[in-house]
TrEMBL record, chains A, B:
The lineage of its organism: Bacteria, Bacillati, Actinomycetota, Actinomycetes, Kitasatosporales. It comes from the Bacteria. Keywords: DNA-binding, Transcription, Transcription regulation. InterPro entries: HTH_LacI, LacI/GalR-like_sensor, Lambda_DNA-bd_dom_sf, Peripla_BP_I. It comes from Streptomyces kanamyceticus. The keyword DNA-binding applies. PANTHER family: LACI-RELATED TRANSCRIPTIONAL REPRESSOR, LACTOSE OPERON REPRESSOR. Residues 15-71 form the HTH lacI-type domain. CDD domains: HTH_LacI (cd01392), PBP1_LacI_sugar_binding-like (cd06267). One of its GO terms (molecular function) is DNA-binding transcription factor activity. This is LacI family transcriptional regulator.
Length: 344, 344
């Protein structure tokens, strides 16, 4: 009896560069040169075409990982994502930055760090071998995190936020400027007893703390007679706003910086429902210049925040990647101006 | 003369597992077993400790890429990011999903595709060798994109949005339900001449088209005598809203579905400024149930959108990764209910 081997259905496996080489009748090195567009090696056009055809036929995709293992680094820019939903201002800025980086041939990847901080977070990011990291929270990264990233081959580590960290370039977003702009606006209009809304929602500390600090510092620095700053807690709900409005007259504030436009809109409505005149009894100012603030009556005054163009930041990242030994740079990138409407 | 070689400053190079092996006095294989927590091989506690200490001292981080090259796949779940800023609803949903996936030991990475579609986008994603992909736009991915991803080793390809694509699992978010809910609400209240706001901003088609289609289909299906649907363009600016409001009386609509709450707030303000009574002359409804809609007078009616829990979706992803040969599943995941307030 003749033994006929079982015809197993072919196991559908992921095609490798060896498969491409076999089909194209060339070496694996040639496949690598062609698909990675290596200019150092001259390869004839027909061979190039044969490799591309074979790759297409097999559905072969080069492995970014393998490529970065060979090159020692990638073109990946890693940005840890925050769990705080980004407003329109930051979404627009990040979109622009991503486009600009992709035009410079970087791949932008956002990484969900989910509560990891410092070295733990840095190690998780480093596993992907990014060539650059843009971290939003310097305090969570820490100098040891920066070291981990650099030792894993990251050529540029930037922080993007209110704080600096040793060893990293800083795109400093100094939220104190927002509070300072609001304070100067109120003081110039004769307001003296200034409230500062502190949102009770977790995770917003890194935003409100510098704003309130800037407000307080400015009031103290001007030495205006009788000027005070009172912190007032507010949760983002109608109930919380109604509770705060109910004891408003006892607080004796004649102006309030409401953290941002959303909290300002919430508070202004509650004050009006309580019969408190805005801006007669209390001037209200928000920040972020949301379009919706213009729809209220009175129209909401706000502090407009200006961010740099994504393109200029992308060029900065690229420059540092090309010159990784340079001293850490600090760029002050946040502007703040009052848009005076009717509520203040 | 004695030649003294230049003392070059040591080139600070990225530490490798070979460096760790040398310092710990073990083989590279042992380093790999220890740092990848391979349970198949028994390694003594002191050896384990020696490897961990050496890795820490050198600042060595395993290369996710190298690990996935060995394993043939990663634990990476890749989600292409959209350029449209996500509302609070989707941000919350994605945060929950990311947490739930990370608890199942996946790493979630968002990838900026930036205008790439189909095979191009899929090839770019495939280079990172994700084990699963959650793509928000099925039509941009296409069946060939799904094939590229699967051939590169992705075990689970999901689409998350209004459309399906051959070969992928679908988490179907049928926006027609939003329009249907609004239509039934208006018809039940005797409104017949229904306007549907069409935002002029680019990139929103995938959201508004199904909503308007659902509105229209429902009005036609009920066969209500004299009921009509009129599409009305509106840009997200006060000028655009004022222009639309100025010709409102000529349009003869007695109800309007305003795409979402932000457009609804903008339109309602412009209608009120034009002396049109809401809801007397025109009923207005938005969607998304933003908190700010409750601050207006009249309070804005809205269609509340319900998404599934991130945890249940994470479990679904994990199940498919473990059983990649299973037939594509379709899950209808979007719920829509009217929250009736004062504007309708």
């Amino acid at each position: 009896m003749v033994h006929i081997p079982n015809q197993q259905p072919a196991q559908r496996s992921v095609p490798t560069s060896a498969d491409v080489a076999r089909l194209a009748g060339v070496s694996r090195a040639t496949v690598s040169y062609v698909l990675n567009n290596t200019s150092a090696v001259r390869i004839s056009e027909p061979t190039r075409r044969r490799v591309h055809d074979a790759a297409r036929e097999l559905g072969y995709v080069p492995h970014a990982a393998a490529r970065s293992l060979r090159a020692g680094h990638s073109r990946m820019v890693l940005m840890p994502t925050s769990e705080i939903p980004m407003g329109l201002l930051f979404s627009t800025f990040f979109n622009e930055l991503q486009w600009a980086l992709s035009r410079l041939d970087y791949t932008v990847v956002q990484y969900a760090s989910l509560g990891m901080t410092g070295e733990d977070a840095a190690r998780a990011w480093a596993e992907l071998r990014p060539v650059a990291v843009l971290a939003p929270d310097a305090s969570a990264l820490g100098p040891r995190g920066v070291t981990v990233l650099k030792r894993s081959g990251a050529k540029a580590v930037f922080t993007l936020g209110p704080q600096r960290v040793e060893g990293a370039h800083a795109l400093l977003m100094d939220g104190r400027r927002v509070g300072r702009a609001a304070a100067l606006h109120f003081l110039a209009r004769g307001r003296r007893r200034i409230g500062a809304i502190v949102p009770t929602e977790a995770g917003l500390e890194m935003f409100w703390q510098p704003r309130v600090a800037g407000l307080r510092e400015t009031v103290e620095a001007t030495g205006t007679h009788g000027a005070t700053v009172t912190e007032l807690s507010l949760g983002y709900s109608e109930e919380s706003a109604a509770r705060l409005a109910a004891r408003w007259r006892d607080l004796g504030v004649d102006a309030v910086f409401a953290y941002n436009d959303e909290y300002a809109m919430l508070l202004m409505r509650a004050l009006q429902d309580e019969g408190i005149d805005v801006p007669g009894d209390t001037a209200v100012i928000g920040s972020d210049d949301l379009m919706l603030g213009r729809l209220l009556r009175p129209r909401l005054s706000t502090v407009r925040i200006d961010l740099p163009s994504g393109r200029s930041l992308a060029e900065l990242v690229d420059r540092v990647v090309r010159d990784p030994g340079a001293e850490p740079e600090v760029h002050d990138v946040l502007g703040a101006d009052v848009v005076h409407r009717e509520s203040s």
